[in-house]
Amino acid sequence: MLNYRDYLSYSEKYIQLAEEESLDKLKFLIPSILLSWIAIESFINNIMDDFGSLPEDLFELHERGLLLEKKVIFVDHGGEMGKFKLDYREYKRLGEKILFLIAKFSNLNKPYKGEILWQNFEDLRDTRNKILHPRRNIELELTVEKAYKYLETSKNIIQFVSTNVWRKKISF
Description:
Layout: H1 4-20, H2 26-52, H3 61-68, E1 70-74, E2 84-89, H4 94-105, H5 116-132, H6 144-166
Antiparallel strand pairs: 1-2
Helix pairs in contact: 1-2, 1-6, 2-3, 2-4, 2-5, 2-6, 4-6, 5-6
C-alpha cells in the first residue's frame, strides 16, 4: 500500500523527469503536482482514520462525524427517534480536515491560516483544481520551479500537522 512518502518520492521523480525533458514538460509536471497534493491527502486521511478508530466517547458526535466523514442526522422515526446519529458519507475538504486537526489537537493560540504556508497550500489547491477541472478560459502555467514549490509545500504541511498534532517531527 502506498503512503505519503511514496507519493512525495514519485512527485519528485516526475519533476526530475521534467527537468530532463526539452519539449513537453507538462506531461511530468501535471502528475508531480497531483502527487504532491495526494501526499497531503494520504497523510491527513490516515490521521483522521487513526482518531476515528478510537473509542467513540473520546469525541463529540459532530467531531466523530468529521473524522469518519459521515453526516450527523436527526432521527425522526423508528427505534432511535429523537436522537442524533452518523449516517451517509459526507466528504470534507482537505483544508477543513487540517483546520479541525490543528484546532482540536494543537496548542496553537494564534491563527495560522493567513501565513505563507497556508497561502502556499491554497495555491497548490488552486493549481490542482485547475488541472482536475480544466476550463478554456483558465490559463494553466506550470514550471519546474512551481512543481518544486508545491512539493515543498506538501512536505511543509505534513510537517506542520505532524508537529502540531503528534508533537513529532518527520524526516523526509
